[in-house]
Amino acid sequence: MNFIIGEYFAQAALEVLQIIGIKPEEVDLIGSHGQTVYHIPQEWQTNLFSMKSTLQIGEPSIIAERTGITTIADFRPRDIAAGGQGAPLVPFADEILFKSDKIARAIQNIGGMANVTVISPEIETFAFDTGPGNVLIDYCAKLIFCADYDKDALFASQGNIDENWLESLMQESYFNLEPPKTTGRELFSKDYAKKILASAPENPYDAIVTVTALTAKSIYKAYVDFIFPKTRIDEIVLGGGGAYNPYLVKLMKEYFGDNIKILTHEDFGISSKFKEAIAFALLAYTTYYGIPNNVPACTGAKHKRVLGKIIPGNTGI
Known about the structure:
CATH class of the largest domain: Alpha Beta
Strand order of the largest sheet: 7-6-5-8-9
Number of helices: 11
Radius of gyration: 20 Å
Strand content: 15-25%
Distance between the termini: 27 Å
CATH architecture of the largest domain: 2-Layer Sandwich
Shape: globular
CATH superfamily of the largest domain: ATPase, nucleotide binding domain
Structural class: alpha/beta
Low-confidence stretches: none
Largest sheet: 5 strands, mixed
């Protein structure tokens, strides 16, 4: 599977280059995150070692060989080796793109999981996963409506939030964990979605709108518990697929009120769809030049490190 996904990644890269009219030899680097198949950020014990672990597949040697382009990948393990959780990594790019001497910003990504990077002139940058982003909404869309996702909040907009059920969903213990913390589909899985739907309201539209509200409210709770005690926030910059969910954005604005401006990456000339691609291009560039590119305050690492492994292309490094 590792090699098969590497072949697909290489093929995708070559197809994109052909579409935009750039030759592979004109490209300096490919930064590939890979596909996470397991991420264990909490320490676990073997007979000999206490360790954390992570695994991303999509063999970079295949990508480098098929494209001829130097490929940099496998970014997370070095941060884990340095005592971190291997995530989040995007805050490194967030600092470059959004840091201001005057404005305190929270860069709120709502992908499968929801994660925030806090960039404020008052404190050191920090970041963590707030909880589920689109993952449970997507699972519910699939399980209830046989749809891949709730496009334009078509389903959610027809329901009413069940406040009692929402309150029970908010009892998830992850929401109370102190940062730094990360999560993933190991917790918020399809089985998790099935479990919560067992106690859902009968009206399917009420169910999916309440799960949508869970994403918004868990984000808001994370700010109240872990961000506002440390710094003011002037702007929240939304990214990821959730930024295109109008009902989710509406709920975010309702929870945070008028004192905090809710923006999107597009307001800064950055496509939310390509934010992570930009981030891993920056990570690849800095790795190539030996520039430390983890953010210890975000991952929990003991020190700054250069992340990733370099696979030379046709012309070497």
